[in-house]
Write a structure and sequence with these properties.
The structure holds two protein chains of two kinds. A two-stranded antiparallel sheet of chain A has the order 1-2. Chain A has 21 helices and two strands. Chain A is an all-alpha fold. Chain B is an all-alpha fold. In chain B, 80% of the residues lie in helices and 0% in strands. Chain B has 14 helices and no strands. In chain B, helix 12 packs antiparallel against helix 13. Classes of the chains: A mainly alpha, B mainly alpha. At the A-B interface, helix 2, helix 3 and helix 4 of A face helix 3, helix 4, helix 5, helix 8 and helix 13 of B.
Chain lengths: 486, 381
């Protein structure tokens, strides 16, 4: 049986210039997650406000609710919905094989998520258009349906996203439900729930200060009511720790100091959340302070920073995979590496020739450029963000040969090199050529015994490192292979 | 592949194709409202700008239609986008490599549909805002043209993407090397015009029902609205047929032949029958002063038949372009994908959510406050 996602198709690869592909999808993803969380938490907040209004606990809640909902529709229904579609299209640009595998494996789950999204849109627009003409019970029912739709969207998509890091038994069984209810599912869901409540509440605190027509007492009353929905933030440390605990050990290691960038982003997310949490608990809930629009806006920006940091960590700790123990970041399947060591990707045939093929002085450089395009360009650029020329600026040629051949040892969050010794040498030459600003002439590769000796040395480097990911993954891979044998 | 759609296809392929076509039809129904609706508003604004002294004839009907369109357009675009997610999912299951390749080849140009859609979407909210009513005429004109321009760009891009996805490996390679991000072939514009002009009769049906509902609710009907909308639909059908003629002239025998295969021929017949039903319904409707549900029902059935027939023909052309060898290869992948769990859960939740969506309308219907109830509470109350 052909395994899902094992298609041998080679896709055209685009050059994003100096921008790392991850930055494009990350930037869009952070904005989308933030607006989606706003929509989800907003639904719960509005149910609460409608309840306050119809039970006589707050006179201002109804007016505020209608204003807030317009804001939510304009931001979430437009930019939020379209960036959701945008995530799909951007994922295709960055890693078509990854999104293809996700669609194949979870298309019915995606279908379920879509059906709840339909409910969210229908209930949302029904409230948006007719709320002013409806009785309280109808308003509350529509808001509850809207909240169910939006929260269920989170529930279902969360299973797919957390599966990418902790696919668990899915690797052996390909069972949708084993993959969906994975180790990270519940902590991730609960953490995102609290985050959604936080984002929606903070935006509400801004809106309270912006909507005209309220007396100061009414604004104060609303602030105090809204602040209750920030209370669950006290659970964030526990939920965050739980989520970290469910991560594979190596992934947790990146976040806890193993990778400076990931640790830094985790620190930013934690610090921003802590500031918001402390302000909410000590200031708004305990001291019952009022919050003005400017302060609320600062807290919204902090929440955006926390979301950005959190999403960076979530994406980063998956390295070197996009789907753990299945697909590497460069879209090479874990089981393809051994074969690619024998017959490389460039030798297997890439139907898309280099666009600037004529500018390369030698065939070896052309081959190196293809290797870079297929294996490196998903996460690196040549001379922009995370540039290979900069990362290897101080390495000697032999260092490059060793470090690229043994990539997973060079950096444990790198995948193993999936190519032949000739491809290692080609990409080394290509990077050096780029480092020297693409001169018109370049040394023709050695021939005869000298070349054979070099390739034998590179083969030894490759064999020594093996075809499996870094040591931290060895146990998981062995377990996966045992499953395959069954 | 030479049996009536979808029966001659391998079961998994047929299953996903039926789902794809069914969801695509729903998406197209909403999308047509947006495409033709933005066009109506744009050309209406242009007409008003060019003939400021002679609005009297238009005033008989335009305010009603324009009012409905500006009011409903954001919701309908939202519905079109939401409904578009399902066929977007199924097209990835069916033709993953082809679809992804076209996406990648068009690159930035393709991705540009996202900001364009966002601008167009917000433009629709601007169109219905009170703020715009107080602006000078040229601002109102620009505001009306903007969403239409965005809709046309997105429609063009999808047609371009679709044609590139079936162009084949040789053209893909050449396109990739050329570094072009705009794909063109002679059938693109005629094909686009068929779908774009075809949106006019679909919009007419939507609007007909909306105005019939207002009529039923006792709102006074504008004199001339019924014949105007009927003429709009008939002109749309005429333009669609002209576009179809152009499409026939520029396409090759292979493409034309797809319409007359056993796979798609009967569906093409349904599409033609649908057109005839629409012509009959609107021709009769144009002589009346009020919208008749039976005639609207007939026109709706005609639109449904035409959309269904043309959607199947669209797939028949694609299958023919891919060829039987590729289709066999794809069928194997579809069979693998079909083994994935979750269909029954999907069916359960889809039915549940459909019921919940219907419930939203019932809630609005039943929860309507009596006219003497206060509609809002003063902020200072």
């Amino acid at each position: 049986m052909e395994e899902i996602g094992m298609t041998p198709d080679v896709y055209p690869v685009n050059d994003f210039g100096p921008i790392m592909k991850g930055l494009v999808i990350g930037g869009l993803g952070i904005f989308h997650v933030f607006t989606a969380q706003f929509a989800i938490g907003g639904g719960m907040l509005m149910c609460y406000l409608q309840y306050l209004s119809m039970t006589g606990r707050s006179n201002a809640a109804r007016i505020f609710l209608d204003s807030y909902f317009k804001f939510l529709v304009l931001l979430s229904f437009v930019a939020g919905a379209l960036t959701g579609v945008g995530m799909w299209l951007t994922s295709i640009q960055v890693s078509p094989r990854t999104i293809g595998l996700m669609v194949d494996a979870f298309h019915w789950v995606w279908g379920i998520e879509w059906s709840f999204f339909c409910l969210e849109v229908v209930a949302g627009y029904a409230f948006y258009r007719y709320a002013k003409h409806l009785n309280d019970q109808a308003r509350l029912t529509l808001l509850v349906l809207y909240s169910i739709g939006s929260y269920a969207s989170l529930f279902w998509i969360n299973g797919i996203l957390s599966w990418q890091l902790t696919p668990g038994e899915w690797i052996n069984t390909q069972s949708v439900w084993a993959g969906f209810f994975n180790a990270g599912f519940w902590p991730s869901l609960l953490y995102r729930t609290v985050a959604a409540l936080t984002v929606a509440s903070l935006v509400a605190l801004v809106v309270v200060n912006v909507v005209p027509g309220f007396e100061r007492e009414q604004r104060t009353e609303l602030v105090q009511h809204i602040a209750y929905l920030l209370a669950p933030m006290v659970l964030m440390p526990v939920l965050g720790a739980w989520y970290l605990f469910t991560m594979p050990a190596d992934s947790r290691g990146w976040a806890m100091g193993g990778s400076v960038a990931i640790t830094l982003f985790l620190t930013i997310a934690t610090a921003a959340s802590a500031v918001i949490g402390l302000y909410a608990v000590l200031g708004l809930l305990w001291r019952r302070l009022y919050i003005n629009g400017a302060t609320a806006l600062v807290l919204v920006f902090l929440a955006f920073g926390a979301t950005a940091g959190g999403e960076f960590v979530r994406e980063g700790v998956r390295k070197p995979f996009t789907v753990r123990d299945t697909l590497y970041s460069n879209s090479i399947h874990i089981r393809e590496v051994a074969e690619l060591r024998r017959h490389g990707l460039t030798e297997r045939g890439d139907p898309y020739p280099l666009r600037d093929a004529a500018t390369y002085p030698t065939d070896q450089l052309r081959q190196g450029a293809l290797v870079y395009r297929q294996q490196c360009s998903a996460c690196h650029t040549i001379a922009g963000v995370n540039a290979l020329t900069e990362l290897m600026a101080t390495w000697t040629r032999d260092q490059k040969r060793l470090n690229i051949a043994q990539l997973q040892r060079t950096k444990p969050f790198m995948p193993p090199f999936a190519g032949t010794p000739a491809e290692v040498e080609a990409v080394v030459q290509y990077i050096e050529w780029e480092q020297k600003k693409r001169p018109r002439t370049w040394a023709v590769p050695q021939e005869g015994l000298e070349r054979q000796a070099l390739l034998a040395k590179l083969r030894a480097f490759l064999d020594e490192a093996g075809t499996e990911p870094a040591d931290a993954h060895t146990r998981a891979v062995a377990w996966y292979q045992r499953g395959q044998r069954k | 592949m030479d049996t009536l759609f979808p029966f001659g296809l391998p079961d998994p392929t047929a299953f996903y194709l039926v789902l794809f076509v069914a969801t695509l039809i729903i998406h197209v129904a909403f999308m047509n409202y947006v495409l033709a609706g933005t066009a109506y508003l744009a050309f209406g604004a242009l007409w008003t700008r060019l003939h400021p002294a002679a609005p009297a004839s238009a005033a008989k009907y335009a305010p009603t239609i324009s009012g409905i369109l500006t009011d409903w357009m954001p919701a309908m675009l939202s519905a079109a986008i939401t409904a578009g997610v399902a066929p977007l999912l199924f097209v990835q299951l069916l033709y993953k490599y082809e679809f992804y390749t076209a996406n990648l080849l068009l690159f930035n140009r393709w991705m540009f549909i996202l900001p364009v859609l966002i601008v167009g979407f917000y433009g629709l909210y601007v169109l219905k805002s009170e703020w715009l009513k107080a602006r000078p005429p040229w601002v109102r004109l620009v505001a009306a043209l903007l969403p239409f321009g965005c809709a046309v760009f997105v429609a063009y891009s999808w047609t371009e993407n679709h044609l590139l996805s079936v162009a084949g490996a040789d053209k893909w390679q050449a396109f990739y090397v050329s570094e072009w991000q705009v794909y063109y072939e002679p059938q693109l514009i005629p094909r686009l015009t068929v779908w774009a002009f075809g949106s006019m009769p679909t919009l007419a049906v939507w609007l007909g029902w909306q105005m019939w509902y207002r009529q039923r609710a006792g709102e006074p009907a504008d004199v001339g609205t019924v014949p105007h909308l009927s003429q709009f639909a008939l002109v749309g059908i005429g333009l669609t047929l002209a576009g179809a003629l152009g499409y026939y002239l520029v396409t090759d025998d292979r493409t034309r032949g797809a319409f007359f295969t056993n796979l798609a021929g009967p569906y093409f017949g349904l599409a033609v029958l649908g057109v005839l039903l629409q012509i009959g319904a609107w021709w009769r409707q144009r002589t009346l002063t009020a919208f008749h549900p039976q005639l609207l029902g007939l026109a709706t059935a005609g639109v449904a038949l035409t959309l269904t027939g043309m959607s199947v023909c669209r797939e028949a052309i694609r299958l023919r372009e891919l060829g039987s060898e590729r289709l066999t290869e794809l069928a194997g992948k579809h069979a693998e994908v079909l083994k994935v769990d979750g269909f029954w859960a999907f069916l359960f939740f889809a039915a549940l959510n459909l019921a919940a969506c219907v419930a939203c309308f019932v809630i609005v219907w039943r929860g309507w406050k009596p006219p003497d109830s206060p509609t809002s509470v003063s902020p200072t109350a």
